[in-house]
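for the writeup, i need someone to sanity check this before i put it in the appendix. the sequnce is what the collaborator sent (i think, or maybe the updated version? ugh). structure was predicted straight from it, no edits. if anything looks off just tell me and ill rerun, i have time this weekend
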Amino acid sequence: MHIPDGYIGPIMSLGSALVTVPVWSIAVKRVQKILSNRTVPLMAIFAAFSFTIMMFNVPVPGGTTAHGVGGTLAAVVLGPAAAIVTVSMSLIIQALFFGDGGILAIFINCLNMAIILPLVGYGVYRLIAGRSPILSTRRVWAAGIGAYVGITASALAVGIELGLQPLLFSDAGRPLYSPYGLAEAIPAMLISHVFGASAVEAIITSLGVAYMQKRYPEYLTSLRAVFAGPGVVEGRQVGRPIWQILAIGTAALVVSLLGLGLISGGGDFGHLFGADWSQVSWADVGNMLLVVLVIAIVLIPLTYFLLPKRFKGVGTAFMAAAIIAPLGLIAPGFAYGEGSTGDVQSAFGYIPKGLQDLSTLFSAPFSGYNIKLPFFSDSNAALWQTAIGYEISGIVGMLVLGLAVFGVMYMLRRRSSTIDVDDKAPVGVGASPSRKGTEV
Protein backbone atom coordinates (compact mmCIF):
# COMPACT_ATOMS: atom_id res chain seq x y z
CA MET A 1 0.00 0.00 0.00
CA HIS A 2 2.94 2.34 0.64
CA ILE A 3 3.94 3.99 -2.64
CA PRO A 4 7.72 4.53 -2.95
CA ASP A 5 9.35 7.41 -4.81
CA GLY A 6 9.45 6.85 -8.54
CA TYR A 7 6.14 5.03 -9.01
CA ILE A 8 4.08 8.23 -9.02
CA GLY A 9 4.98 11.40 -10.93
CA PRO A 10 6.13 14.26 -8.64
CA ILE A 11 3.34 16.47 -9.99
CA MET A 12 0.71 14.03 -8.71
CA SER A 13 2.62 13.14 -5.53
CA LEU A 14 3.13 16.73 -4.43
CA GLY A 15 -0.16 17.88 -5.94
CA SER A 16 -2.04 15.60 -3.55
CA ALA A 17 -0.95 18.03 -0.81
CA LEU A 18 -3.75 20.29 -2.06
CA VAL A 19 -6.14 17.79 -0.49
CA THR A 20 -4.03 16.30 2.29
CA VAL A 21 -2.77 19.50 3.95
CA PRO A 22 -6.21 21.17 4.37
CA VAL A 23 -7.61 17.92 5.80
CA TRP A 24 -4.66 17.78 8.24
CA SER A 25 -5.40 21.35 9.29
CA ILE A 26 -9.07 20.61 9.99
CA ALA A 27 -8.20 17.37 11.81
CA VAL A 28 -5.60 19.05 14.05
CA LYS A 29 -8.05 21.81 15.02
CA ARG A 30 -10.67 19.22 15.97
CA VAL A 31 -8.15 17.11 17.87
CA GLN A 32 -7.07 20.13 19.94
CA LYS A 33 -10.58 20.28 21.42
CA ILE A 34 -10.30 16.82 23.02
CA LEU A 35 -6.68 16.80 24.18
CA SER A 36 -6.13 15.99 27.84
CA ASN A 37 -3.79 14.04 30.10
CA ARG A 38 -5.58 10.86 29.02
CA THR A 39 -6.20 11.45 25.32
CA VAL A 40 -2.55 12.32 24.55
CA PRO A 41 -1.11 8.92 25.58
CA LEU A 42 -4.09 7.17 23.98
CA MET A 43 -3.29 8.79 20.63
CA ALA A 44 0.37 7.80 21.02
CA ILE A 45 -0.71 4.21 21.69
CA PHE A 46 -2.91 4.07 18.58
CA ALA A 47 -0.17 5.59 16.43
CA ALA A 48 2.19 2.85 17.64
CA PHE A 49 -0.56 0.27 17.00
CA SER A 50 -0.94 1.42 13.39
CA PHE A 51 2.84 1.40 12.90
CA THR A 52 3.11 -2.12 14.30
CA ILE A 53 0.43 -3.79 12.19
CA MET A 54 1.74 -2.06 9.05
CA MET A 55 5.05 -3.86 9.69
CA PHE A 56 3.35 -7.24 9.73
CA ASN A 57 3.09 -8.38 6.11
CA VAL A 58 0.86 -11.32 5.23
CA PRO A 59 0.83 -13.26 1.93
CA VAL A 60 -2.13 -12.47 -0.31
CA PRO A 61 -3.29 -13.78 -3.71
CA GLY A 62 -0.96 -12.98 -6.58
CA GLY A 63 2.28 -14.07 -4.96
CA THR A 64 2.64 -10.81 -3.07
CA THR A 65 2.23 -9.47 0.48
CA ALA A 66 0.04 -6.82 2.10
CA HIS A 67 -0.66 -5.47 5.57
CA GLY A 68 -3.33 -3.95 7.76
CA VAL A 69 -3.38 -0.28 8.75
CA GLY A 70 -5.69 0.03 11.77
CA GLY A 71 -7.20 3.30 10.58
CA THR A 72 -10.84 2.32 11.11
CA LEU A 73 -10.20 1.01 14.63
CA ALA A 74 -8.47 4.29 15.49
CA ALA A 75 -11.43 6.21 14.06
CA VAL A 76 -13.95 4.16 16.05
CA VAL A 77 -12.12 4.73 19.33
CA LEU A 78 -10.52 8.16 18.85
CA GLY A 79 -12.77 9.69 16.21
CA PRO A 80 -11.99 10.31 12.51
CA ALA A 81 -9.96 13.49 13.10
CA ALA A 82 -7.65 11.86 15.64
CA ALA A 83 -7.31 8.79 13.39
CA ILE A 84 -6.18 11.01 10.52
CA VAL A 85 -3.50 12.60 12.72
CA THR A 86 -2.20 9.38 14.31
CA VAL A 87 -2.04 7.31 11.11
CA SER A 88 -0.43 10.24 9.25
CA MET A 89 2.30 10.50 11.86
CA SER A 90 2.89 6.74 11.60
CA LEU A 91 3.32 7.03 7.83
CA ILE A 92 5.64 10.03 8.09
CA ILE A 93 7.89 8.26 10.63
CA GLN A 94 7.93 5.16 8.42
CA ALA A 95 9.04 7.19 5.40
CA LEU A 96 11.69 9.25 7.22
CA PHE A 97 13.28 6.49 9.30
CA PHE A 98 12.53 3.22 7.51
CA GLY A 99 12.04 4.11 3.85
CA ASP A 100 8.54 2.59 3.89
CA GLY A 101 6.87 4.89 1.36
CA GLY A 102 8.65 7.66 -0.53
CA ILE A 103 9.51 11.14 0.68
CA LEU A 104 7.78 12.77 -2.28
CA ALA A 105 4.91 10.31 -1.81
CA ILE A 106 4.18 11.25 1.82
CA PHE A 107 1.18 13.39 0.89
CA ILE A 108 -0.40 10.80 -1.39
CA ASN A 109 0.29 7.90 1.01
CA CYS A 110 -1.33 9.86 3.82
CA LEU A 111 -4.27 10.69 1.56
CA ASN A 112 -4.81 6.99 0.81
CA MET A 113 -4.19 5.39 4.21
CA ALA A 114 -4.70 8.19 6.76
CA ILE A 115 -7.62 10.05 5.18
CA ILE A 116 -9.60 7.90 2.74
CA LEU A 117 -9.29 4.72 4.82
CA PRO A 118 -10.48 6.00 8.24
CA LEU A 119 -13.14 8.32 6.82
CA VAL A 120 -14.70 5.61 4.63
CA GLY A 121 -14.28 2.95 7.32
CA TYR A 122 -15.81 5.13 10.03
CA GLY A 123 -18.66 6.22 7.74
CA VAL A 124 -19.61 2.59 7.04
CA TYR A 125 -19.26 1.77 10.75
CA ARG A 126 -21.64 4.56 11.76
CA LEU A 127 -24.10 3.59 9.02
CA ILE A 128 -24.29 -0.04 10.20
CA ALA A 129 -24.01 0.63 13.94
CA GLY A 130 -26.80 3.20 13.88
CA ARG A 131 -28.15 3.88 17.35
CA SER A 132 -27.23 0.46 18.72
CA PRO A 133 -25.82 0.32 22.27
CA ILE A 134 -22.08 0.92 22.61
CA LEU A 135 -21.51 -2.60 23.94
CA SER A 136 -23.67 -4.44 21.42
CA THR A 137 -22.35 -7.17 19.12
CA ARG A 138 -23.69 -5.11 16.21
CA ARG A 139 -20.90 -2.59 16.87
CA VAL A 140 -18.28 -5.33 16.52
CA TRP A 141 -19.70 -6.39 13.15
CA ALA A 142 -20.07 -2.77 12.06
CA ALA A 143 -16.42 -2.04 12.87
CA GLY A 144 -15.21 -5.12 10.98
CA ILE A 145 -17.28 -4.35 7.89
CA GLY A 146 -16.27 -0.69 8.02
CA ALA A 147 -12.59 -1.68 8.20
CA TYR A 148 -12.99 -4.05 5.25
CA VAL A 149 -14.61 -1.39 3.09
CA GLY A 150 -12.24 1.36 4.25
CA ILE A 151 -8.97 -0.39 3.38
CA THR A 152 -10.47 -1.71 0.12
CA ALA A 153 -11.38 1.88 -0.86
CA SER A 154 -7.82 2.91 -0.04
CA ALA A 155 -6.45 0.09 -2.21
CA LEU A 156 -8.72 1.17 -5.07
CA ALA A 157 -7.36 4.72 -4.78
CA VAL A 158 -3.78 3.40 -4.98
CA GLY A 159 -4.68 1.28 -8.02
CA ILE A 160 -6.16 4.29 -9.81
CA GLU A 161 -3.17 6.48 -8.96
CA LEU A 162 -0.65 3.92 -10.20
CA GLY A 163 -2.74 3.05 -13.24
CA LEU A 164 -2.96 6.67 -14.36
CA GLN A 165 0.81 7.05 -14.60
CA PRO A 166 1.27 5.53 -18.09
CA LEU A 167 -1.56 7.75 -19.38
CA LEU A 168 -0.16 10.94 -17.86
CA PHE A 169 3.61 10.51 -18.00
CA SER A 170 5.45 8.72 -20.82
CA ASP A 171 8.43 9.22 -23.09
CA ALA A 172 8.50 7.71 -26.58
CA GLY A 173 5.69 5.37 -25.60
CA ARG A 174 7.41 4.13 -22.44
CA PRO A 175 5.92 5.05 -19.05
CA LEU A 176 8.20 7.20 -16.89
CA TYR A 177 6.86 5.88 -13.60
CA SER A 178 4.59 2.93 -12.85
CA PRO A 179 4.43 1.00 -16.16
CA TYR A 180 1.12 -0.77 -15.57
CA GLY A 181 -2.12 0.87 -16.70
CA LEU A 182 -5.52 0.94 -15.01
CA ALA A 183 -6.46 -2.49 -16.38
CA GLU A 184 -3.53 -4.06 -14.51
CA ALA A 185 -3.08 -1.79 -11.47
CA ILE A 186 -6.66 -1.77 -10.19
CA PRO A 187 -7.15 -5.57 -10.23
CA ALA A 188 -3.68 -6.07 -8.69
CA MET A 189 -4.55 -3.82 -5.75
CA LEU A 190 -8.15 -4.94 -5.31
CA ILE A 191 -7.54 -8.69 -5.55
CA SER A 192 -4.71 -8.57 -3.02
CA HIS A 193 -6.90 -6.68 -0.57
CA VAL A 194 -10.41 -8.02 -1.17
CA PHE A 195 -9.12 -11.58 -0.75
CA GLY A 196 -6.38 -10.87 1.78
CA ALA A 197 -5.43 -7.65 3.54
CA SER A 198 -9.01 -6.39 3.86
CA ALA A 199 -10.01 -9.58 5.67
CA VAL A 200 -7.03 -9.17 8.01
CA GLU A 201 -7.96 -5.54 8.67
CA ALA A 202 -11.59 -6.50 9.36
CA ILE A 203 -10.67 -9.22 11.86
CA ILE A 204 -8.11 -7.02 13.65
CA THR A 205 -10.64 -4.20 13.94
CA SER A 206 -13.45 -6.48 15.16
CA LEU A 207 -11.14 -7.99 17.76
CA GLY A 208 -10.01 -4.53 18.81
CA VAL A 209 -13.57 -3.28 19.33
CA ALA A 210 -14.57 -6.48 21.17
CA TYR A 211 -11.51 -6.09 23.42
CA MET A 212 -12.36 -2.44 24.13
CA GLN A 213 -15.95 -3.38 24.91
CA LYS A 214 -14.73 -5.93 27.42
CA ARG A 215 -11.88 -4.03 29.09
CA TYR A 216 -12.23 -0.31 28.30
CA PRO A 217 -15.87 0.34 27.28
CA GLU A 218 -15.65 4.01 28.28
CA TYR A 219 -13.23 4.63 25.39
CA LEU A 220 -15.94 3.75 22.87
CA THR A 221 -18.07 6.75 23.79
CA SER A 222 -17.45 10.33 22.75
CA LEU A 223 -13.91 11.32 23.70
CA ARG A 224 -15.06 14.78 24.72
CA ALA A 225 -17.54 13.25 27.16
CA VAL A 226 -15.25 10.46 28.36
CA PHE A 227 -12.30 12.63 29.26
CA ALA A 228 -14.42 15.33 30.83
CA GLY A 229 -15.24 12.80 33.54
CA PRO A 230 -16.77 9.37 34.22
CA GLY A 231 -19.87 8.56 32.26
CA VAL A 232 -22.41 5.79 31.80
CA VAL A 233 -21.86 3.23 29.05
CA GLU A 234 -25.08 1.78 27.69
CA GLY A 235 -25.64 -1.77 26.55
CA ARG A 236 -24.60 -5.22 27.56
CA GLN A 237 -20.96 -6.26 27.42
CA VAL A 238 -19.82 -9.10 25.19
CA GLY A 239 -20.32 -12.21 27.29
CA ARG A 240 -17.33 -14.29 26.23
CA PRO A 241 -14.03 -14.03 28.11
CA ILE A 242 -11.47 -11.92 26.25
CA TRP A 243 -9.15 -14.91 25.70
CA GLN A 244 -11.95 -16.72 23.89
CA ILE A 245 -12.61 -13.69 21.69
CA LEU A 246 -8.92 -13.44 20.78
CA ALA A 247 -8.66 -17.20 20.17
CA ILE A 248 -11.75 -17.25 17.95
CA GLY A 249 -10.54 -14.21 16.01
CA THR A 250 -7.06 -15.64 15.50
CA ALA A 251 -8.47 -18.98 14.38
CA ALA A 252 -10.83 -17.22 11.96
CA LEU A 253 -7.92 -15.24 10.54
CA VAL A 254 -5.76 -18.34 10.03
CA VAL A 255 -8.58 -20.37 8.47
CA SER A 256 -9.59 -17.46 6.18
CA LEU A 257 -6.04 -16.94 4.94
CA LEU A 258 -5.47 -20.66 4.45
CA GLY A 259 -8.69 -21.00 2.46
CA LEU A 260 -7.88 -17.98 0.29
CA GLY A 261 -4.35 -19.25 -0.19
CA LEU A 262 -5.54 -22.65 -1.39
CA ILE A 263 -8.13 -21.15 -3.74
CA SER A 264 -5.64 -18.74 -5.33
CA GLY A 265 -3.00 -21.50 -5.46
CA GLY A 266 -5.24 -23.98 -7.25
CA GLY A 267 -5.42 -26.25 -4.21
CA ASP A 268 -1.64 -26.75 -4.20
CA PHE A 269 0.03 -26.05 -0.85
CA GLY A 270 3.27 -25.43 -2.72
CA HIS A 271 1.66 -22.47 -4.49
CA LEU A 272 -0.43 -20.91 -1.72
CA PHE A 273 -1.56 -17.39 -2.67
CA GLY A 274 -0.12 -17.92 -6.14
CA ALA A 275 3.47 -17.81 -4.84
CA ASP A 276 6.21 -20.35 -5.42
CA TRP A 277 7.04 -21.50 -1.89
CA SER A 278 9.83 -23.74 -3.15
CA GLN A 279 11.94 -20.56 -3.28
CA VAL A 280 11.88 -20.41 0.52
CA SER A 281 14.76 -21.95 2.48
CA TRP A 282 12.85 -23.75 5.21
CA ALA A 283 16.03 -24.50 7.15
CA ASP A 284 16.60 -20.74 7.46
CA VAL A 285 12.96 -20.28 8.42
CA GLY A 286 13.35 -22.89 11.17
CA ASN A 287 16.40 -21.07 12.55
CA MET A 288 14.52 -17.77 12.44
CA LEU A 289 11.51 -19.20 14.28
CA LEU A 290 13.77 -20.66 16.96
CA VAL A 291 15.51 -17.31 17.48
CA VAL A 292 12.17 -15.46 17.55
CA LEU A 293 10.84 -17.95 20.13
CA VAL A 294 13.87 -17.45 22.41
CA ILE A 295 13.57 -13.66 22.15
CA ALA A 296 9.84 -13.86 22.90
CA ILE A 297 10.39 -16.06 25.99
CA VAL A 298 12.83 -13.49 27.37
CA LEU A 299 11.37 -10.12 26.35
CA ILE A 300 7.59 -10.59 26.67
CA PRO A 301 7.57 -11.52 30.40
CA LEU A 302 10.26 -8.88 31.06
CA THR A 303 8.17 -6.21 29.36
CA TYR A 304 5.10 -7.16 31.40
CA PHE A 305 7.13 -7.07 34.60
CA LEU A 306 8.78 -3.69 33.96
CA LEU A 307 5.90 -1.65 32.57
CA PRO A 308 3.59 0.42 34.80
CA LYS A 309 0.28 -1.26 35.60
CA ARG A 310 -1.83 0.91 33.29
CA PHE A 311 0.37 0.06 30.27
CA LYS A 312 1.15 -3.62 31.01
CA GLY A 313 -1.45 -5.11 28.66
CA VAL A 314 -0.97 -2.74 25.72
CA GLY A 315 2.82 -2.53 26.04
CA THR A 316 3.24 -6.29 26.25
CA ALA A 317 0.95 -6.81 23.25
CA PHE A 318 3.01 -4.34 21.20
CA MET A 319 6.25 -6.02 22.20
CA ALA A 320 4.83 -9.40 21.17
CA ALA A 321 3.70 -7.95 17.82
CA ALA A 322 7.15 -6.47 17.16
CA ILE A 323 8.81 -9.79 17.97
CA ILE A 324 6.63 -11.88 15.66
CA ALA A 325 6.48 -9.26 12.86
CA PRO A 326 9.41 -10.88 10.96
CA LEU A 327 7.14 -13.85 10.16
CA GLY A 328 6.02 -11.72 7.23
CA LEU A 329 9.55 -12.01 5.80
CA ILE A 330 8.95 -15.69 5.04
CA ALA A 331 6.56 -15.04 2.15
CA PRO A 332 8.25 -15.01 -1.27
CA GLY A 333 7.70 -12.20 -3.78
CA PHE A 334 7.30 -8.47 -3.21
CA ALA A 335 4.31 -6.23 -2.76
CA TYR A 336 2.88 -4.68 -5.91
CA GLY A 337 4.39 -1.24 -6.45
CA GLU A 338 6.89 -1.66 -3.63
CA GLY A 339 9.75 -3.66 -5.13
CA SER A 340 13.33 -2.56 -5.58
CA THR A 341 14.58 -1.50 -9.00
CA GLY A 342 16.00 -5.02 -9.42
CA ASP A 343 12.57 -6.51 -8.75
CA VAL A 344 11.03 -4.07 -11.22
CA GLN A 345 13.63 -4.99 -13.86
CA SER A 346 12.79 -8.68 -13.60
CA ALA A 347 9.03 -8.10 -13.41
CA PHE A 348 8.61 -5.40 -16.05
CA GLY A 349 11.58 -6.07 -18.35
CA TYR A 350 13.00 -2.57 -17.92
CA ILE A 351 13.31 0.19 -15.34
CA PRO A 352 11.26 3.34 -16.11
CA LYS A 353 13.41 6.48 -16.30
CA GLY A 354 11.44 8.32 -13.61
CA LEU A 355 11.86 5.39 -11.27
CA GLN A 356 15.61 5.33 -11.87
CA ASP A 357 15.92 9.05 -11.15
CA LEU A 358 13.72 9.16 -8.05
CA SER A 359 14.24 5.79 -6.37
CA THR A 360 17.52 6.99 -4.83
CA LEU A 361 16.23 10.46 -3.94
CA PHE A 362 16.31 9.72 -0.20
CA SER A 363 18.01 7.00 1.78
CA ALA A 364 16.34 6.26 5.11
CA PRO A 365 18.70 5.38 7.99
CA PHE A 366 16.96 2.03 8.60
CA SER A 367 15.76 1.33 5.07
CA GLY A 368 13.63 -1.79 4.83
CA TYR A 369 13.40 -1.99 8.63
CA ASN A 370 16.94 -3.29 8.61
CA ILE A 371 19.10 -2.10 11.50
CA LYS A 372 22.64 -3.22 10.74
CA LEU A 373 23.98 -4.99 13.81
CA PRO A 374 27.76 -4.67 14.25
CA PHE A 375 28.36 -8.37 14.84
CA PHE A 376 26.48 -9.45 11.70
CA SER A 377 27.59 -9.21 8.08
CA ASP A 378 25.83 -6.49 6.10
CA SER A 379 25.70 -8.66 3.00
CA ASN A 380 24.04 -12.05 2.58
CA ALA A 381 22.76 -11.99 6.15
CA ALA A 382 20.92 -15.11 7.25
CA LEU A 383 17.15 -14.83 7.63
CA TRP A 384 17.32 -14.99 11.42
CA GLN A 385 19.80 -12.11 11.46
CA THR A 386 17.54 -10.04 9.23
CA ALA A 387 14.64 -10.91 11.54
CA ILE A 388 16.46 -9.55 14.60
CA GLY A 389 17.15 -6.31 12.77
CA TYR A 390 13.48 -6.17 11.78
CA GLU A 391 12.38 -6.68 15.38
CA ILE A 392 14.72 -4.01 16.71
CA SER A 393 13.49 -1.62 14.01
CA GLY A 394 9.92 -2.25 15.10
CA ILE A 395 10.66 -1.62 18.76
CA VAL A 396 12.68 1.52 17.97
CA GLY A 397 9.97 2.71 15.58
CA MET A 398 7.22 2.30 18.16
CA LEU A 399 9.23 4.23 20.76
CA VAL A 400 10.14 7.03 18.34
CA LEU A 401 6.57 7.30 17.06
CA GLY A 402 5.05 7.19 20.54
CA LEU A 403 7.36 9.95 21.75
CA ALA A 404 6.76 12.01 18.59
CA VAL A 405 2.97 11.80 18.87
CA PHE A 406 3.08 12.45 22.61
CA GLY A 407 5.31 15.50 22.09
CA VAL A 408 3.27 16.98 19.25
CA MET A 409 -0.05 16.41 21.03
CA TYR A 410 1.34 17.87 24.26
CA MET A 411 2.49 21.02 22.41
CA LEU A 412 -0.90 21.33 20.71
CA ARG A 413 -2.60 20.98 24.06
CA ARG A 414 -0.38 23.66 25.61
CA ARG A 415 -1.06 25.95 22.66
CA SER A 416 -4.80 25.32 22.91
CA SER A 417 -4.76 25.99 26.66
CA THR A 418 -2.84 29.23 26.15
CA ILE A 419 -5.35 30.44 23.57
CA ASP A 420 -8.27 29.56 25.87
CA VAL A 421 -6.69 31.41 28.79
CA ASP A 422 -6.05 34.50 26.65
CA ASP A 423 -9.62 34.46 25.34
CA LYS A 424 -11.07 34.13 28.83
CA ALA A 425 -8.66 36.46 30.60
CA PRO A 426 -10.44 39.09 32.78
CA VAL A 427 -9.93 42.79 32.32
CA GLY A 428 -6.43 43.77 33.37
CA VAL A 429 -5.05 40.21 33.05
CA GLY A 430 -3.59 39.59 29.60
CA ALA A 431 -6.28 41.72 27.97
CA SER A 432 -6.66 45.28 26.91
CA PRO A 433 -10.34 46.00 26.42
CA SER A 434 -11.47 49.26 24.88
CA ARG A 435 -12.38 51.87 27.44
CA LYS A 436 -15.58 53.76 27.13
CA GLY A 437 -16.66 56.66 29.26
CA THR A 438 -14.64 58.78 31.61
CA GLU A 439 -11.53 57.39 33.24
CA VAL A 440 -11.38 57.66 37.01
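The CA atoms of residues 19 and 56 lie 29 Å apart. The first strand starts at residue 58 and ends at 60.
thx in advance!!
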